[in-house]
Design a protein that fits this description.
Elements (H helix, E strand, L loop, with lengths): L2 H15 L7 H9 L3 H28 L2 H21 L3 H15 L3 H11 L5 H26 L5 H21 L8 H10 L6 H30 L6 H15 L7 H4 L3 H21 L3 H29 L5 H30 L1 H37 L1 H12 L2
Membrane topology: Multi-pass membrane protein
GO molecular function: transmembrane transporter activity
InterPro entries: MFS, MFS_dom, MFS_trans_sf, MFS_Transporters
């Protein structure tokens, strides 16, 4: 991997290491301001809703203002909002800063993903995005440990520590990452005007399937502890299961370099990944012991290993010149949409139908994606191949220069 990719992954992991405050936002609102759980839920939902325009703005700014500048703006804004939440002396002030946090929270993602796409060749994008996913998984484990310590002291310090990591990352980004090229700003703005991701049928189809994937993935994060309680197991054991999943994602990275796996076509890889995800979630539906839950976790994590990096690589290939940031932003709204829908659907299924139906339904969604996603992948890769042939040798030369750029 080029040096810029490694530095970007490290910076993103440092930022993720501090992102342990958000799960405690609702708790802070109820304990500090005496608000009801319903009110806290509305504030959390408002934050989630605000992340959707945030990601879209991040994509537009990445392709016009520049990748590095957009990342600095987003990180600095997150630090300001986090400090505001920590210092808020009323529910209204805390809610305003929570919405502000949502509006700047996703500015970082599209430019960082676009910068990875620009720094490596098409053949290395899957591995690059997979490494980013692995780094975030490891940082997430560290974030949980830090939260366990600071949270016992005062929940407000979680937001202060999160703000500090954002400021550190904002200070590091301009030093270690390639500068935005002023000479390219004008052409970038002109090119961005021609990029219309919301009119790209292939991208919108990938967005729909990506939203379903995010909905399933967030069910694991949100309802797994509740599901363990339904099976008379300790809800806290969900932390052990998620740690095991992170271990699979990290230790499985060398597998992606094996010739047989690296040579898999997108349709085959997506079919295998979603099938493993369905198999693992079916295991959740039948599991009644921690060992059974652990085995199911290892299975679906292998599916995650095959899927996440390849998803972003396909979107990066689909994006036209000068539009990578905006394409990544549109595709990334899948997580914002799923973030609003997942808590409602998961808890309702669990309450009214039980854990078996919940995980069986999620497994069925994955099987449907396993059947449909290969068609979408073939469409995207076929269109990319046609664009490459039309562009001719000059596009190949530009791609070669982009691959060699620092």
């Amino acid at each position: 991997m080029p040096r810029a990719v490694w530095l970007l992954i490290v910076a993103r992991a440092v930022n993720r290491l501090g992102a342990f405050s958000l799960p405690f936002l609702a708790v802070l609102i109820t304990t500090r301001f005496g608000a009801s759980a319903a009110t806290a839920g509305l504030v959390a939902a408002a934050f989630g809703l605000a992340t959707i325009p945030s990601r879209l703005a991040g994509g537009r700014l990445a392709d016009t203002l520049g990748r590095r500048r957009t990342m600095v703006v987003g990180l600095s804004g997150c630090a300001l909002a986090q400090l505001g939440i920590a210092a808020a002396d009323s529910l209204a002030a805390a809610a305003c800063f929570a919405v502000l946090l949502g509006l700047v929270f996703e500015l970082y993602e599209p430019p960082s993903q676009a910068m990875i796409a620009d720094a490596v060749g098409p053949g290395e994008r899957i591995r690059a995005y997979s490494l980013l996913n692995a780094a975030l998984a490891v940082a997430g484990l560290g974030a949980g440990l830090i939260a366990a310590g600071l949270g016992r002291w005062d929940l407000r310090w979680l937001f202060v520590a999160d703000a500090v990591t954002c400021l550190i990352c904002a200070a590091v980004v301009p030093v270690v990452l390639p500068a935005d090229r002023p000479d390219a700003a004008g052409p970038a703005r002109e090119g961005a005007k021609q990029v219309r991701p919301w009119r790209d049928g292939a991208l919108l189809a990938l967005l729909a399937s990506g939203t379903l994937f995010a909905l399933v993935y967030l069910q694991i994060m949100i309802t797994l502890p509740l599901s363990l309680a339904h099976r008379d197991l300790q809800p806290a054991d969900a932390g052990l299961l998620l740690a095991a999943s992170a271990g699979v994602i990290v230790l499985g990275q060398p597998l992606l370099r094996l010739k047989r796996l690296a040579a898999l076509s997108a349709p085959v890889a997506f079919t295998a990944g979603y099938s493993l995800l369905a198999l693992g979630l079916s295991g959740y539906a039948l599991a009644h012991t921690l060992g059974a839950f652990l085995a199911a976790t290892l299975v679906w994590s292998l599916g995650d290993l095959l899927l996440v990096g390849r998803m972003y690589a396909v979107v990066a290939e689909l994006a036209p010149g000068g539009g990578t940031g905006r394409y990544m932003a549109v595709y990334g709204t899948s997580w914002g949409i799923a973030g609003i829908a997942a808590p409602v659907t998961g808890t309702q299924l669990l309450q009214h139908s039980g854990a078996t139906v919940l995980w069986g339904t999620m497994a069925g969604v994955c099987l449907a994606l396993a059947a449909v996603q290969p068609v979408l992948a073939r469409t995207a890769t076929h269109r990319t191949r046609l664009a490459s042939e039309v562009a001719g040798p000059e596009a190949g030369a530009q791609g070669h220069r982009a691959t060699r750029s620092p």
